[in-house]
Amino acid sequence: MFLGVTASVTNWDAEGATCSLVLEDNPLVDFVELPDTCQGLHYCNILSGVIRGALEMVSMKTEVTWVRDMLHGDDAYELRVKLVKQVPEEYPYKDDD
């Protein structure tokens, strides 16, 4: 939302715990070209950390990995999101007192 990017959620697994986020555009790479010596680098890896951190704020422990990246010659940007576990909410104080 803050980057002005639209993402499609696709490729759900049978358990409903893993899906793919396909980004149509990525403004973070507008003027970026990776040299041949850096082809193993995921330039926008910060996006996977942002998604993982946002899901942790709503009590979801996840793993987020890059599957496709246009900087590596793929046709789209795709992140794979896997739900590891749902963390129960803990309150630091008691409401009953």
From TrEMBL:
Subcellular location: Endoplasmic reticulum; Golgi apparatus, cis-Golgi network
Entry keywords, A to Z: Endoplasmic reticulum, ER-Golgi transport, Golgi apparatus, Transport
GO BP terms, alphabetized: Golgi vesicle transport
Superkingdom per UniProt: Eukaryota
GO cellular component: endoplasmic reticulum; Golgi apparatus; TRAPP complex
Record InterPro entries: Bet3, NO_sig/Golgi_transp_ligand-bd, TRAPP_component
PANTHER family: TRAFFICKING PROTEIN PARTICLE COMPLEX SUBUNIT 3
Protein name: Putative trafficking protein particle complex subunit 3
